[in-house]
Design brief:
The complex is a heterodimer of chains A (213) and B (124).
Chain A: E1 4-16, E2 22-30, E3 33-39, H1 41-44, E4 48-53, H2 63-72, E5 79-84, E6 96-97, E7 107-113, E8 118-120, H3 122-126, E9 163-165, E10 169-181, E11 186-190, E12 200-205, H4 209-212
Antiparallel strand pairs in A: 1-2, 1-12, 2-11, 3-4, 3-6, 4-5, 7-10, 7-12, 8-9, 10-11
Chain B: H1 3-10, E1 25-34, E2 37-51, E3 58-65, E4 68-75, E5 81-88, H2 114-123
Antiparallel strand pairs in B: 1-2, 1-5, 2-3, 3-4
Classes of the chains: A mainly beta (213), B mainly beta (124).
């Protein structure tokens, strides 16, 4: 099973690496994630592991969910995620997944939701060039033509237009692991990751690591 | 800034890097790696800017080398810096001495030296 744990984006900073170079890093507080349920081909029709992260008050949790956490012997989590596996998972419900699992892993993928930017025009949303600002130009930040005339008689599906931008699930692949602090449950990866500080992200061993290694 | 981030960077900060300020003439001893060998290279000049805070803090050293102005930006807490010697202290009225970039000849290195400044002040 490719280790995946849930984490919280703390923020970005810089640290000096072994070669004394200043590298930009994102700090993620990841795990410990209790395994809440193990799904297998025989029982559920597919292989997966359900993991949790964070904490929530008992009074804000339904009786049904409380029972679910109790069954796994875990405290109440605020975040739940299911991780699909190719083969039957080796872990048991009640086990804890920590950042220590990434010890010796060179690269990870980070999955998270990007910052929501609201309703935006095509210049910000799709990087359109826009028009001249002055010299009599009346075409500033518009998207231009929406298509042809009588044929096809409609706007093609997928035409880039203004709309909601951001708050999309995005994966950043092959981020180098700079440092792991198992005591504080921290993992430092090189470069930026999606989302605002404090947002929830998934940390997964890189799926392309065999090729890149 | 976030307390967790402060904790991570705290042990990388060096406490012997507060001995110089903008306007000072300094000699920066940097470690240079060539293959397996390591040697010390000295870059001497005037500190014209010091900006940022914490681990991000940098300083700019300007010198005239063979008639050509050369500037180098160092991270203040870089482990590659062996030591920073202060040759001469000065009195500045600016936080950033970018006006030195427009100066040519002798004036390019001219800053109010603290020793002389205080001597003339005392004479008055």
């Amino acid at each position: 099973m490719n280790t995946t744990i849930i984490g919280k984006k703390i923020g970005m900073t810089q640290i000096f690496n072994e070669e004394n170079e200043l590298v930009p890093v994102t700090v993620i507080e990841a795990g410990p994630c209790p395994v809440l349920q193990v799904k297998t081909q025989e029982t559920d029709g597919y292989n997966a592991v359900q993991i949790g992260f964070g904490s929530r008050k008992e009074k804000n949790t339904s009786k049904a969910m409380q029972g679910h956490f109790k069954k796994a012997g875990a405290s109440i989590c605020s975040q739940l995620t299911e991780v699909r596996c190719e083969e039957a998972p080796e872990v048991q419900a009640g086990e804890q997944l920590t950042v220590a699992a990434f010890e010796g892993v060179a690269k990870v993928d980070i999955i998270g939701d990007t910052k929501g930017r609201g309703f935006q025009g095509v210049v910000k949303r799709y990087g359109f060039a826009g028009g001249p600002a002055s010299h009599g130009s009346m075409f500033h930040r518009r998207g231009g033509s929406y298509g042809n005339c009588q044929w096809p008689g409609h706007v093609w599906p997928g035409k880039k237009m203004p709309g909601r931008f951001g708050n999309h699930r995005r994966t950043v692949q092959n981020l180098k692991v700079v440092k792991i602090d198992a005591e504080k449950n921290l993992i430092l990866v090189k470069g930026s990751i999606p989302g605002a500080n404090g947002s929830t992200v998934l940390v997964r061993g890189s799926i392309k690591r065999k090729k890149s290694a | 800034m976030n307390s967790i981030i402060n904790e991570i960077t705290a042990d990388q900060l060096k406490d012997d890097r507060s001995n110089f300020k903008v306007g000072d003439g300094v000699r920066v001893h940097t470690r240079v790696r060539e293959g397996n060998k390591e040697r010390i290279q000295v870059f001497a000049g005037i500190v014209i800017a010091r900006k940022g805070s914490g681990i991000h803090e940098t300083f700019t050293v300007r010198r005239i080398s063979f008639g050509e102005g050369v500037e180098r930006v160092f991270p203040v807490h870089s482990p590659n810096i062996e030591k920073i010697e202060v040759d001469r202290e000065s009195v500045t009225m600016r936080a950033r001495m970018y006006y030195l970039r427009d100066r040519i000849g002798k004036a390019a290195n001219k800053v109010k030296e603290k020793r002389l400044y205080e001597a003339t002040k005392a004479a008055k």
